[in-house]
Design goal:
The chain is α/β, with parallel strands linked by helices. 24% of the residues lie in helices and 21% in strands. A 7-stranded mixed β-sheet has the order 1-4-7-12-15-17-18, with no helix packed on it. α2 packs antiparallel against α3. The longest helix is centred in the first third of the chain and has 18 residues. The protein is globular and about 55 Å long. The C terminus is likely disordered.
Length: 231
């Protein structure tokens, strides 16, 4: 294993690593360029938008064979929707479930993995930070010291309000709601409403029955048309 692979493996594991390693700098540059292209295009087809999102993620998985635009809207309806602008460091560490929606100006620092479950909605200006630094300034050493990270997990059917910040290592359980402007510093249990800085429990929500949770939902092929670049 060469030095670039070693640093990348340490980064993914959450061990201290050097973000200034040339290979990691190159990865971030690639992702930032992909984000720039995504953020500065308009009036693209659903298929092209999905392709651009996969470019941000450096995901070579091919889409199903091209069809008419109307059929593509249905064929790709379960793909996530992202409204530009969107920002990430590596992109490939972001994993989104079906029908996830991310509103304007989302920032994800994904030195470690970020998982966002199906049907979860993120409001505008949401930030998810897996990256962090030691509080010891001598070890931190400006740009020369190591950094590390902790993965973030957001469950299915969550609603994350505008201007929410989620800090490293946090897990947000299925069906939870995070009020606008909150800073989430600790894990949130499933089906809980939280708000504040730091986020605190406001109330619990009823959990769906087994029958409700297995009932298929009808997919609107164009739920966010007219709201910028819809992915």
């Amino acid at each position: 294993m060469n030095s670039s692979e070693v640093e990348r493996e340490k980064m993914i594991r959450g061990d201290p690593f050097f973000a200034g390693h040339p290979a990691l700098v190159k990865e971030r540059q690639r992702t930032h360029q992909a984000c720039y292209r995504f953020n500065n295009v308009s009036d693209v087809s659903r298929r092209r938008a999905v392709e651009m999102w996969r470019d941000i993620r450096n995901d070579p998985t091919p889409l199903p064979s091209p069809s008419s635009e109307v059929e593509d809207d249905i064929l790709l309806a379960n793909e996530p929707y992202i409204t530009a602008p969107f920002y990430a460091d590596y992109g490939c560490n972001i994993h989104l479930g079906e029908q996830t929606y991310i509103n304007f100006n989302c920032t994800i620092l994904d030195s470690c993995a970020v998982y966002i479950g199906s049907r979860t909605l993120l409001g505008p200006n949401v930030s998810l930070y897996t990256a962090t630094h030691t509080t010891d300034p001598a070890v931190r050493d400006g740009l020369r010291g190591p950094e590390f990270g902790k993965e973030i997990r957001v469950g299915e059917d969550c609603w994350i309000g505008g201007n929410v910040v989620v800090l490293p290592g946090v897990t947000i359980g299925d069906g939870s709601t995070v009020g606008a402007g909150s800073v989430v510093t600790k894990d949130i249990s499933p089906y809980t409403v939280v708000a504040g800085n730091p986020a605190r429990i406001i109330r619990s929500l009823p959990q769906p029955s087994a029958a409700e949770s297995t009932t298929p939902t009808t997919v609107d092929a164009k739920p966010w048309r007219g709201r910028g670049i819809a992915l």
